[in-house]
Structures are given as structure tokens and as C-alpha cells.
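Training component of the fellowship. As part of building independent skills, the fellow (R.M.) carried out the full modelling exercise for a liganded target. The chosen ligand was 2-acetamido-2-deoxy-beta-D-glucopyranose. The inputs are recorded below so that the supervisory panel can assess the work.
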Amino acid sequence: MRTSTFVFAALAAFASRCAAVGVVGTAEGFGKSTTGGGSATPAYPKDIAELTTWLTDDVARVIVLNKEYNFIGSQGTVTENGCRPASNKCPGAGGQDAINHADWCTNGNAGAGVTTIKVTYDKAGVNGINLGSNKSLIGIGSAGVIRGKGLRIANGAKNIIIQNIHITELNPQYIWGGDAITLAGTDLVWIDHVKVSLIGRQMLVTGGSASNRVTVSNSEFDGSTSWSATCDNHHYWTLYFTGSNDLVTFKGNYIHHTSGRGPKMTGNTLLHAVNNYWYAVSGHAFDIGSGSMVLAEGNVFQNVVTPLLENLGKLFSSPSATANAACTAYLGHSCVLNAFGSSGSFSGSDTSFFSNLSGKTIATAVAASANVAKTAGIGKI
Ligand SMILES: *[C@@H]1O[C@H](CO)[C@@H](O)[C@H](O)[C@H]1NC(C)=O
Ligand SMILES: *[C@@H]1O[C@H](CO)[C@@H](O)[C@H](O)[C@H]1NC(C)=O
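Fellow's submitted model of the complex:
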């Protein structure tokens, strides 16, 4: 190869790599029409202040993270009375103490035998950044890390894509230490290839007011922790879906080393849980409250002690090929069987909510596979 040809080829490869900076793919399922920052020019925030400004303003933006943004210490620390809740039966050996958020320590919720202790926590972790509308927040390779701060998509902010970033270290030693991603009053959110680890409270919340159309895909919820509310190095507060008529597609996610609330559902959310992989869950995965609707297909439950804690709502667990044929009229495909290994039972055959799926954009389903562990999370696209 002549040198000029070689240089040209190298330049072309470089240019195509540059051109590739942007959101990869589109959402499947309910959040399909999310466009985020659209065709805005990708820009790299220089520090946490610029990242915060760009996320919170009302300009459509494609924000690219190619390094770590560390918020720890940026708002100082707080020392005040918190508590050792009844659940912490392993003090000094990996339990989780609590911040007295909304009087949780003193209003009875921390259980009998709660004791007051001093807690010191990082202030940046307890309140997330409030995003404006029309944002794409994306990471390069495995480099895009937000340490010590969560994200809130609330109060009408909508049309947001978060892809290929890692949110970590929000006061993991404390219950109420912070939530990684909170949705509360939004529409059209796509969370994709995000990793969440070492969080004090919930890894993902769709809470309070309506979240409308949401897709969470190919993301990793890693519950490995040295501060476990269940004293076993597994994080308890994983996914909490409440809200009002929320439509959540949850596809291709890897939830592992957790012990509870994965997900806990209240309100009347309709959840399509498809092709996810639950692994090494020492407590429960689903806890379905009254009014909530769950269609679960093509998932793997491996070493999940309690796939279903309680079902007070409606659950279709894709129980048999015969029953699964009922999906075709509403989803455009026959539902796919879930797979179980060394796990408890998970069963429901309620089809009464299928009419809610009519006219909606529905994610496809493939056969249940543990390969999700290799495709979910940061650095996999
Ligand atoms: C977001 O984008 C939509 C579509 O371009 C536009 O109508 C809306 O005003 C934008 N919102 C904000 C807060 O800029
Ligand atoms: C499901 O259908 C019921 C009855 O039509 C309706 O009241 C409810 O809002 C629907 N929920 C969702 C999440 O679409």
C-alpha cells in the first residue's frame, strides 16, 4: 500500500469514528419516539459545573462524557443525627445505617429497636441533578462516569436519552444516601447501557407523578456492596416503579447481587419486562402492588431466591406455550417462556390487562439467555 493511500484510509477511519459520536440506535418499546438532544452538536463538558449547567438548562443538547465527573465533596459533607435501623443486625460487618430523611428514623419506619447514631454523608449524593428537556447524555467507551451524584428527570422535563454511562458512589453506606436515576413527572425517557452501582437508596425510581413512556434497556444494576441492608453484600433498594399510568419497557437488563425491590411496584404502572437477566438475588425480585400490571417474558432467573415476593396486582408470567399464544393479538408475537435455574417460583396467568397494550409500541422478544450479562451495562456498544 502506498503511503498516501494508507494515510487516506487512516483519516477516513478516524473521521468515521468522529462522526459516530452520538446516540447509538433507537429505543424499543414504549419509549421508542424519544429523540433526546436530536441533531445538536455533540459537546464535552469540561467539569462538573459545566455538566450541571448543560444538563439543567432548556437547550437541546448532546452531552458527551469521555472522563469521570466526580461530585463527591462538591457540596460539602453533613454530620447529623441518623440511625441504626432494626434491619442493621450486622453493625461493623457490612450493614446499612440511615440518614433521617423525612423523619424515617423517628417515624417508626426504621423498625423496633432503632437507635440514634451520628451519620456523616456527602451532600452532593442526596439530591440529583434536575434535567431540562431534550437532552442526550452519552459516554465514550467505558469512560463516562458520574460519581457521587444522581440524575432527576422531573417536573415536566421530557425527551431524554441517557446512554452508556456509569452512575456510582452515592453514599452507599446509608439508606437515603441518594437515588441514581429518578423519574417523576416526565414523558419519553430512554435509559440504555447504563450501569448503576454503590447507591445508598434506589438505583432507579419511576415515582410520584406520571412518567408516561419509558424504556430501560441493556442496563446493569450491580448490587454488590459492602453496606447491605440485608447484611449479605447485596443491595436491597434496586428498582421502584410507581407513578400514574406509566408505561415502562424494561428489556435486556442485568440485575445482579441485589436482595430486594427489583422491582417493587405500586401505583398502576404497566411493565413489559422482557429478556432481562436476574442473577444472584438473595431476596426478592418482583413485589407487585395493587393496580400494577406486569407482563414478563423471555427473562432468566438464575439463583434468585424469591422471584416474586407478592402479587396484589396483575401478572402474566408467560407460563406455557399454550397460554402465551394470547399475547399475539396485543404484542404481535407469542410470548416467550422465562427460564429458571436454582430459583423460586414466578407465576401468573392474568391476561385481563392486555387491552392496555393495544396501539402501543411493543418491544420484541427473543429466547431467554444469560448472555445479557455480556451485553448489558457501560462499554458494550
Ligand atoms: C424540546 O423539543 C421540542 C421539539 O423540538 C420543542 O417543541 C420543545 O419546546 C423543546 N423543549 C424545550 C424545553 O426546549
Ligand atoms: C389500562 O386500562 C385501564 C382501563 O381502560 C385504564 O384506566 C388505565 O389508565 C390503563 N393503564 C395504562 C397504564 O395504560
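The panel noted the following from the submitted structure. The radius of gyration is 21 Å. The helical segments are 3-19, 48-56, 123-126, 321-324, 328-331, 372-375.
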